[in-house]
Amino acid sequence: MAFLIPSHASRPSDDPIFALNGEARARAQAGESIVNATVGAMLDDAGKLAVLPSVAQALREVPAEVGAGYAPISGPPAFLRGVIGDLLGTRPEAAQAVAVATPGGSGALRLALCNLIEPGQSLLTTSLYWGPYKTLADESDRELATFRMFDEQGRLDVVDFEAKLAELVEKEGRALVFLNSPCHNPTGYSFDDAEWDAVAAAVGRVAERGPVSILLDVAYARYAARDLTHAIDRVIHLAPKALILFAWSASKSFTEYGLRVGALVAVVPDAVERKQIESAFSYSCRGTWSNCNAAGMAAITRILEDSALRAQVDGERAELKAVLDRRVARWNELGGKAGLRYPRYDGGFFTTVFCDDAAGAAAKLRAEGLFVVPQSGALRVALCSVAERDIGRLVEGIARHTR
Fold first, then answer.
1. By residue range, what is the domain housing residue 151?
2. Which long-range contacts (CB under 8 A, 24 or more apart) does 276-283 make?
3. SS percent in the chain: helix, strand, coil, step 5
C-alpha cells in the first residue's frame, strides 16, 4: 500500500551537497587528510565555523521572554524597517518597499515562487544555478527554466536572457526571474555595471508585454569586491515597470546560518498594490511556517538599529572577508597558472571550474580526499571552507582531473 503521492515517491532523502559534506567530515574524523570544498559556510583556517563575536554576544543578550515568545507573522516592524534600510538606505524607494520575515533566504525564494507565478509556470534563472532553486520550484509545483549564463566572451549572456524572458511572458503571461549577484552561487561571478544596465534594459522592454518580477538573491553580497549599492542603483529605476524584489539573509552576512533569519523585500510604487502584496506574503507565511525565529530577529534588529554595534559587526565581518579575499587571490594566482577554466571571480564563497565529465572528475578527486560538488559541466568549489594553505593541493588535483 503506497501512502505517498506518486510524484513524491522517488525523492532523494538528502541534499547532495550536505551528503558530500557529511562524507568529507566523517573521513577527516577518521584521520584522513581531507580538503572539503563543499559546504557554503565560512570556516577559519583551522577548519572551525567562523562566527562574528558581536553577533553572538547580541544573541546572548536577547531577553528570555523575547526569544521564547511568538514573533509577529510578518516579522517585527523594527526588523522589517531595519532590513529595508540595510538594502535601500535613504533612497526614496525605501518608502515604497514592503518586507516580510522568512526562515533564511530560502524562505524568501519560496514566498516569491508561490505568489508571483502560478502552479505549472516556470521560474527563470541562469543555466548555472544553486541546486535548491530547482528543489524549491519542484516542491511548490512550479517549473524551472534557464537562460545561457555566459556568452562566447565569458560575459553574462543578456541576449539569451531577454529571449528566454520574452518567451516566458509570451507563453505564460508573466515571469519571475532569480538573479544571484553579486557573488553568484555556484560560479562566484558578479555582474558588472554594463551587464546590470543591459539586464535592466531587457527587463524594461519585456515588461511592456506582461508582469515581470525580478528577484535579486543577495545572500553573499557582503563578501563582494564591490558594494551591493552598485547593483541596486542599476535596477531600482525599473520599479514602476517591473516588480523588484530582494531575498535578504542574515546567514552569511552575520555568520548565523542556524538562526534562519531572512526577509523578502518588494519595491512597489503603487500603494494599493503594495498592500495587496504585503497581505499575500503575510498569508503565505502563516500557511507555511507561521512565524520566524524571535530571538534571532531581535538580535539582528538591534545590530541594524544600533550604529555603534553595527560598526563593530561590520569591522569583524571585514576581517573575515579579508581572509576570504586572500583565498580568492591565491586561487586566481594558482588557478590561472594551472590553466583552470572558470568565470571571472573576485569575491564570494564559491567558484566553478568548467569540465566535461564533472561527475567523473569529482569522484576521482573524492578518492584523493578532495571534495567538490559536481554539477552539469562544472565543479563547484567552496573556497569559503578551504584554508589558504590547502588551495595549492586543491588546484593541482582539479587541474589533473579536468584536462
1. 57-307
2. 277/98, 277/115, 277/243, 278/74, 278/98, 278/100, 280/115, 281/74, 281/98, 281/100, 281/111, 281/115, 282/73, 282/74, 282/100
3. 50, 15, 35
Is the pTM higher than 0.90?
yes
Is 132 domain-assigned? Answer: yes
- Asked, for residue 385, whether it belongs to a domain, the answer is no
CA angle 189, 382, 28 (to 5 degrees): 175
User: 53-60 and 307-338 helices cross at what angle (nearest 10)?
Assistant: 140
**pLDDT for 173-182, tens place per residue?**
999 999 999 9
Tell me if 157 sits within 8 A of 149, measured CB to CB: yes
**Do the domain assignments include residue 314?**
no
Q: What CATH number is attached to the domain comprising 223?
A: 3.40.640.10
Q: Please, which residues bridge with residue 43 across strands?
A: 49
The residues facing 177 across adjacent strands are 124, 214
**Angle (CA) 73 76 82, round 5°:** 130
pLDDT tens readout for residues 238-282:
999 999 999 999 999 999 999 999 999 999 999 999 999 999 999
Q: How far apart are CA 320 and CA 348, in angstroms?
A: 11
Summary count for the chain: helices (H), strands (E): 15, 12
Q: Compute the distance between CA of residue 247 and CA of residue 262 in angstroms, rounded to an integer.
A: 7
Question: What is the percentage of the chain residues whose pLDDT exceeds 70?
Answer: 100
Count of structural domains, the chain = 1
Is residue 77 a part of any domain in this protein? yes
